[in-house]
Design a protein that fits this description.
The chain is an alpha+beta fold. The protein has one domain (about 1-75): NE1680-like fold, CATH 3.10.510. Helix content is about 20%, strand content about 25%. The protein is built from two helices and four strands; from the N terminus they run E-E-H-E-H-E. The protein has helices at about 30-35, 55-65, and strands at about 1-5, 15-20, 40-45, 70. A four-stranded antiparallel β-sheet has the order 3-1-2-4. A hairpin with a 7-residue loop joins strand 1 (about 1-5) and strand 2 (about 15-20). The longest helix has 10 residues, at about 55-65. The protein is globular. The two termini are about 15 Å apart.
């Protein structure tokens, strides 16, 4: 499954995954507003066996199919990225 990843301009380490590039129609307006101006980060091919740093690929794929987007929240641990965490 192909997906397109955008980062929030308002909240550090908050990302939204979409199945179609620049198609924010499925994202609730309040959520879209809280993201600020989404900035395109990358295109990524997902399959059930793909390892992601902060998300389960199957859960991402399910969310993309059922609700049309996946929201990746920032890590709760502020030192997460210093220990090797990342987007993918």
């Amino acid at each position: 499954m192909n997906c397109f990843i955008y980062k929030s301009s308002k909240k550090d380490q908050l990302y939204i995954y979409l199945p179609c590039k620049d198609d924010f129609d499925v994202v609730p307006p309040a959520l879209l507003d809280s993201l600020g101006q989404p900035e395109f980060v990358m295109q990524l091919w997902l399959d059930a066996g793909r390892k992601l740093a902060r998300a389960n690929a199957r859960e991402v794929m399910l969310a993309l199919t059922e609700q049309g987007f996946y929201l990746q929240m920032p890590p709760e641990d502020p030192l997460h990225d210093l220990r090797g965490g990342g987007l993918y």
